[in-house]
Amino acid sequence: MAPTLPRLVVITDWRLPREQLLHALGKALEAGPEVAVQHRHPEASGRTFLDEARLLASLCHARGNPLFINGRLDIALLVGAHLHLPAHGLSPQDVRDLLPAGRWVSVAVHDEAEARAARGADLTLVSPVFAPGSKPGDTRETLGPEGFASLARHLSCPALALGGITQETAGRVSGAAGFAVISAVLEAKEPGLAARALLAACPPRAMLPGP
Asked: 3.30.70.260, 3.40.50.920, 3.40.50.2000, 3.20.20.70: which CATH number matches 8-200?
């Protein structure tokens, strides 16, 4: 059977106390293998980012959950993780031959040009659908459900909705293979229940093509 792509990606926010972050991630991962973690920490030094990646890899691998590393191919290889590519950086074609078989590549998408550039990705994170709860100062124009659906139609791989996704807003997004969140899980009173509620709002699991 082909491996199953995640339907919920929880993106790290290292501004939170470390104990709170790791506790929330652990509870979210208990919701099942369709929950993935994306390690994102743009302010960290290379050493700190690697140390955190190893910590998250231990957390995820022990439970059988996927881990994506944001923007660092070298660290993804070092910790045995999948790779997330920010917009305007490396493309899936640039990195595919450098990754072991079975590793996924996710890509950030914000507009049609980036949707075209995501060719060859296994998964995309399309944002901002709604105003991001974790970035109150973000002034970017939101896509809204209609804009998300339009971009998703330009993609050749499953699209996860990112930006302002909560249990309440998830049901307003059509055409999504799942969701990517930060505060909706990490700052929830019960992160495990929040993760399960978001999974319940997802359509059936997206499957990778067979070999």
From this structure: 3.20.20.70
